[in-house]
């Protein structure tokens, strides 16, 4: 066991960080195809048409575009007859809802954006997205001031764009909306309206690969388009990568993606999982930021064990946690009270709940996530 500790540590110290640690990568295909043909091509040669989960992805899409083309298909399409679903702007999967007591009597499909009503205990109502209201933004990594009430009234799409340009996004999810800092740091009664937009909206758009990401990046005119006139989405590079809906029979270039991680549904101890990944793929997975965390937690929902192993290891010799891929442990998602360092322990992600990290004994038998490159 001690020899393995030293061997892993020497590998970690001896590597240089030139590895491309992206968990998925995009490929711009400069061939004109309709949306269905593009989907078939991507599924045959890569993983699928591009799924976009956040603004970091958008920047990557823009960077791979060819200069002579202004538009490209992505993997978003409209299921017009599907049940309309409510989503959070930042792509979160929180199911928390706080509608006013009359909500069930409203026509749910008539108004597609949500706002909080501060003189109704903060309960929500659905409203036309073209209404102009104040709104609340949040900063993901700003500990000094996390939430920002913006008094300048905008429609929902403009509010979302403002928050993404100046902060992180519109306020989203239970953790944020019930955070005491919102009421403590913001005086909502100073807004020029009793209604304030939050990051909740509903639509019938789906991703080709079945991903549940609710991230959207429509152009600012989208609310004024006939939403059913074009049932497939494309990104427009000369409009900052913003999306527009288009007839699926139009022939355009397109963007595919490759998934660089795989869930192995065999139960192994941590050491066996490590060598399985290195023999059959590349390594146990490394998670370096919140975007990686979100990508992996979509995978682990399909696991058959309560936890999945990651490439996170504790060394008793030097008394610190490290990633076996060579990355320093900067981003952390430990559960409360974890890790409380101990020998013969490695890092695992829970497959349910909030997908937090836990230290688990190396001998425990779990599924695991491998990186392919």
From TrEMBL:
KW Signal (keyword) present: yes
InterPro entries on file: C-type_lectin-like, C-type_lectin-like/link_sf, C-type_lectin_CS, CTDL_fold
Domain of life: Eukaryota
CDD domains membership: CLECT, CLECT_1
PROSITE patterns in UniProt: C_TYPE_LECTIN_1 (PS00615), C_TYPE_LECTIN_2 (PS50041)
Keywords on record: Disulfide bond, Signal
Residues annotated as signal peptide: 1-21
Domain C-type lectin: 26-138, 142-257, 256-371
Pfam family, one: Lectin_C
Stated name of the protein: C-type lectin domain-containing protein
